[in-house]
Amino acid sequence: MYWKYAIKRVLYGLLMYAILIFIFSALFNTVMEQTLRAQIEEQIRGETMRMTSLNESQLENYVINRRNDLYSLYRLNKPVAERIIWRTWDTLTLNLGNSTIIRSSKGSRSVWDVVSEAVPKTLLLFSVAMLIDIVLGLLLGLKKAQKAGGILDKSTSIGTMVVFGMPSWWLGMIMIMFFAYGLKIFPSGGLHSTPPPEGISYFFDLLYHLALPVLTLVVIGFWGRAFLTRNIVLGVLQDDYIMAARARGIPERKVLYGHTMRTSAPPIVTMSLLALLASVGGNIVYEGIFSWPGMGNLYWIALQQNDVPVLMGNLAITTGLYICGLVILDLIYGLLDPRIKVGGRQ
Amino acid sequence: MDNILTVDNLKLYYYTSKGVVKAVDDISFSLNKGETLGLVGESGCGKTTTGFALLKMPTPPGKIAGGKIVIDGIDITPLRENEMRRNIRWEKISMVFQGAMNTLTPVYTIGKQMMETLQEHREMESEEARKRIEKYLNLVGLSGDTVKRYPHELSGGMKQRIAIATALFLEPKVIICDEPTTALDVIVQAQIINLLKDLKEKLDLSFIFITHDLATEAEVSDRIAVMYAGKIVEIGTNQQIYGEQGPCHPYTRNLLAATPRLHAKVSELSFIPGAPPDLLEPPSGCRFHPRCSLAMDKCKEEEPPLIEIEEEHMVACWRCEKR
Amino acid sequence: MTVSDFRRSASEFWREFRKVRSGVFGLIFLAIFICILIFEPVIVPYPEANEKWRDITYWQDLPSSAPPSWINLFTSKKRAVSESIEEYAFSETLAGAMRIQEYVFEYDYSASVAPSDIVFHASGVGKPTVVISIERPDGLSIDLYRKQLEMSPTQDARVSIDRSAQTAAMNFGKKYSPSEGVQLQTIKTTDVLFSEAKQGMFRSPSPLAGIYKLKVTLLLQKAEEKIEDAFVTVAGRVHGILGTDNSKRDIWSGVIAGVKWAMLIGLLTALVSVSIGVVYGVISAYVGGWKDSLMQRIFEIFISVPMLPVLIVMSAIFKPNIWVMIGIMCIFYWVGPVKTVRSMGLQIKEETYIEASRALGASNTRIIFKHMVPLLIPYAFASMALNVPGAIVVEATISLLGLGDATIVTWGQILQAANSGGAMLSGMWWWVVPPGMAIAFMGMTFAFVGFAMDKILNPKLKTR
């Protein structure tokens, strides 16, 4: 039952991804091709530089022939619709081309290399932050629900609303100004110091650099988590089955952490993950502020340097991860909520 | 006949921001071993609240404001929450809730929930526990496989049966049934009623049967208590209330009159004019007097006490005298 | 729903709303913002900030990177404030056909930190020679400037002492203090001019308080040459309510000017997108069947797109203006309420009065818009309020990346300038904190209102 649901969901996600990439390819086709043509010219020029033995007309012929060859190689001589479909196919098979300027740390210009290098760094930052965020938020939310309407509840709700409209990157700027430049406690950015230390010190150096960005994210995020948990738990606590469980003599601890939390888990988990996914976009600026070499920062650099292939590749991978996240979300929800896992009435 | 449950002068009030709602205001009754006492009345008369009061689980902002409850010789009135939970609830007295469809946690299997309840009260080996669960599921007409199911996979009737099985399997002395058939269709209703009657005989149980449906009440109850606006206005045996001579209290009489008979010609449906009173500011004297066609001046001033007009038949009305 | 029905439920809603304190605060803050909006031209010293944000000449008389004036309250080392000196002692002498006009401006310097700049302004006709010198309280005089200046009757000619007299000031300083090891280009002209003439005046100047006389002599040779409206502006070391940025722009004016854009962006995006979303959700719920499924598929495509990355790329390539950007944001935001609205719609659809309406022959449009949508209005309002902060932040993010609409001023753009101008590094908190706080504050306002509404609509969440 569940496996059927799971497979359907995954296939659906793939289909969605394909459709989106198609839309992107169509939308940005012109720009990509401009870049491609420029790259082709560059390549031809590089080749002709070394052909000192040929005369003028021979050179011209060579250039024209070469250009035609390369154009047909990159299918630039085919009709527009076909080109878009090919581009979609290329993107889906992760054949993302080369960048205009940006290189990976190993010097490669392949867009895939450049982007895939940045992915784990982003994941590191945001998973650590999300973990702390969820744990703290859940605990606080539970406490708030237990004494709903009390002082803790009311004051922390104010906190939630205060940070509701606060851009995470702005808080980052403030934190950097205060803690990094002002008090000089934390580094102002980067993944690690230069040169990066070896062995166990590398790990600590990493933590040291993670501290401020993670702290900022958690400060903004966990209020929302607590508020959400509180609301969902409160709603569940008022359901009849909780009262019935208590009547049956189940101890309060089990009622709260067993029956209540277990029923609250699906919506809490999904909404938390959704919030995380929503921040996939925001981290572009956020990483930039902290000079964190992840996907978001790459985006910014590609923008500033006008490196369109990297931009497109990054967009494709970001979208892919986003959809992946949505699929995982649904799968986890299905796992947690037996109404989906086991399906309807027999 | 010994009393398995006695209630003396029970009061349960809701302390709201608008004032104190006297939902249950000084009621007394008793339940004999092996009998079914019916609690009847309109919506809002306090019957469900009474049920919760017997479990000492008033819905917030309710609180028990006075009175005494004795179950199986134990005065539960002074007992604290912990003791109630461990020794009284479900052990001595249990409840089948109104709308049992919603009283099962959706994320746990039936088996887990039943097992949890059982093991919370008794030290039992899982095998023994499993056997007992199966026994009671069979008793209510369900197969042992049901333990693997989740609540959403079952029909309303099945969930109701599980609620009954769960209420029974610790073998408590008193079982409160709060509108156990109201949310079900007629056929299932009949099945459940028959099941309850059957179980009562087999296991020699004592029930408190709460409903607003007079017909069902007539089917199952040995004795009936009629509630109005938080007070008991009449208690009698099934025969006394539903029989030839009929009840004495105007409210009860009107209730019965309002129920059309299957074989009588009905040209007009009779009804009781007005609406149930506001329990924040109940009427003075007899609470029924604003709607009573037989009201006298005395009814407006003094509240009538419950007096015995026949053996086992008590009424609270100035108009009623000994038969 | 009739008008009286609507009015009754509205007043009931208001009665409930009044009880939620945070909601009332939210409304108060909202009222404050609206007041700011209305009174903007009155409360800002530079009312054309919005249009002239990128016009250097509009801001040229302000100091650069100056902190707010009120910090003087918190320090003993007072910094000179900005002022305008319009009075002068005038004398004119003739030397043949040449007219020599002398304007003497008095500046009372009593602070501990010199002003940023002193600028002489004059309009007129011709190309007179301008000679400027300054007489200090200690009696020393310094020649600052001697050049021919092109005058125009419509536009001020300006002489900035800070820029034009740098060499003169340094030479003056060198007479009293050794200058080895001192980077003379980094020293401010005014810091030298306004400090005691003694050793160490470059490295650790001590302020020379007193009356300074700025003498401006104009040599007019041709008969038609004349001078009008001569005055001097002093650009202080502090300025205004929120200081200035490194392009000399008054940040207070910028932040206030940004209020209208933030409100416009937030409210318009929220209004349009939630309206679309609610109608879409209701229709989807009502029509059911394959049409519903199709609408859901389309919905899922939209929701699978990560908004910000796509928005950024589109902004980078197509460089839209603010209206197009709002439009694009609506394209992403409409999906927000759809899921909830659809499930609410499905519930309403099952109500018997809907069936009754259909039996009476009501058209689908009528049922949807007269019976179903009104029930969702409270939810729609709460949803709108809660969407506003998000939209504002999205625009601010786009602006921060330098992709915003360059014809207006938004808080995000101010922050972008701060970031690229190294405000964090220089500790220019007055540049970084206020615009962000404005964003956060407006977000907070709508959060208060939105959550209060949410609380009322969701009785489950009501607490004793």
TrEMBL record, chain A:
Membrane spanning stretches: 12-32, 123-142, 162-186, 206-228, 268-290, 310-336
One GO CC term on file: plasma membrane
Domain ABC transmembrane type-1 stretches: 119-333
Protein keywords: Cell membrane, Membrane, Transmembrane, Transmembrane helix, Transport
GO biological processes: transmembrane transport
Superkingdom field: Bacteria
Main subcellular location: membrane
A Pfam match: BPD_transp_1
Record carries keyword Transmembrane: yes
Subcellular compartments: Cell membrane
Membrane association type: Multi-pass membrane protein
PANTHER family: BINDING-PROTEIN-DEPENDENT TRANSPORT SYSTEMS INNER MEMBRANE COMPONENT, INNER MEMBRANE ABC TRANSPORTER
Family: Belongs to the binding-protein-dependent transport system permease family.
The name this protein goes by in its record: ABC-type dipeptide/oligopeptide/nickel transport system, permease component
From TrEMBL, chain C:
Domain (ABC transmembrane type-1) ranges: 259-450
Coiled coil: none
Biological processes, Gene Ontology terms: transmembrane transport
First-listed, main subcellular location of the protein, grouped into a coarse class: membrane
Cellular component aspect of the GO annotation: plasma membrane
TM ranges: 20-39, 261-286, 298-317, 323-341, 373-394, 428-452
Compartment(s) of residence: Cell membrane; Membrane
The organism's place on the tree of life at top rank: Bacteria
UniProt keywords, alphabetically: Membrane, Transmembrane, Transmembrane helix, Transport
Membrane topology: Multi-pass membrane protein
Family: Belongs to the binding-protein-dependent transport system permease family.
Protein's name according to its UniProt entry: ABC transporter permease
Protein source organism: Mesotoga infera
Taxonomic path: Bacteria, Thermotogati, Thermotogota, Thermotogae, Kosmotogales
